[in-house]
Amino acid sequence: MTDRTVELESAVRAQAALIFEAQTLLTAYLAKDLDSPVLIDRLLKLLDGPQKRAAEALMREALGEDFGNNA
User: Fold this and answer.
1) Which residues form the domain of 15?
2) Which of 15, 54, 46, 16 is nearest to 38 (CA)?
3) What is the pLDDT of residues 3-47, one digit of tens each?
4) How many domains does the chain have?
5) Is residue 70 part of a domain?
6) Residue 54 domain flag
7) In a domain, 67, yes or no
8) What angle do CA 58, 49, 63 make, to 5 degrees?
């Protein structure tokens, strides 16, 4: 595997982990294991926290560009 392939795989795995965690939280909410405020708090931390920033950094590195800057 090339370095680029390894970087892309890492980025995809990081994004997949975020999606899986969000799905797990939503499943717990639907099963009545989480209240709405707890769900929202955890989703905000997940989608606007260090795990999300790390996944975005891996994606930028793998793509070799600043894909999040639309200015």
Assistant:
1) 3-60
2) 46
3) 889 999 999 999 999 999 999 999 999 999 999 999 999 999 999
4) 1
5) no
6) yes
7) no
8) 15
